[in-house]
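Lab notebook, entry 210. We have the chain sequence and a SMILES string for fe (ii) ion, and the next step in the workflow is to get a structural model of the bound complex before anyone spends time on docking refinements. Request logged below.

Task: model protein plus fe (ii) ion, output structure tokens.
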Amino acid sequence: MKLMETKTRKAEVAHKIIETGESLLNVVWSKADARRAASLEIIARTAYTAEESACHYLETIGLDRKGSIRETLELARYQDTNEQTHEDIFARDLNGLKNWGDRFLARHIAVIIYWAFAITTLIDHELAALLGEAVEVEAVATYKRMLVEQSDEWLNQPAVPTAVRYWNKPNSMWKVRGDNQPMSMRDVVEAIVKDEADHVHANSQKAVAF
Ligand SMILES: [Fe+2]
Ligand SMILES: [Fe+2]
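Result returned:
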């Protein structure tokens, strides 16, 4: 079951907006495979990059009196690095964007998402964070689906280099959580499911930060 951690009416609306957007993306990327993951990770990661930029802006113009915008920015940056790892695993290592059409569509949507999230963050940061939370709820579902839909052969292939490098970083989400070194892609996808669940929680916290 797909559930938002934030239980407000606004959170419900945010989830509906994201579900609608995702149903459009499902027309192109329906299978829970490297193609879908690579494309959707670029889009998801860009939302964090936009949040960082907008928080920087708000800080620059002197609105961060309590330091909560800076904290939100730091958290978005941490999430951005984690999402970038997901993107690199599926787009670089597993060549999920090998089709020109996928690259074209994913990158153009990502640019639109960048501006949409940057502007929404400036106007209504709570809504931007709730939209982010909804994206992450859907991401948890996608990666759970990947664990069921992908073949054993695919899941048992060795963990890709980006995943091992990320695990080795002292402050990576995987190290901080105390995960074992991923040996197979199954371990990697299981770690990513946990990441996305962490993102759901972090975004629900960010929604009430400022
Ligand atoms: Fe991700
Ligand atoms: Fe995520």
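Notes for the group: The mean pLDDT is 96. Worth checking against the assay data. The two ends are 29 Å apart (CA to CA).
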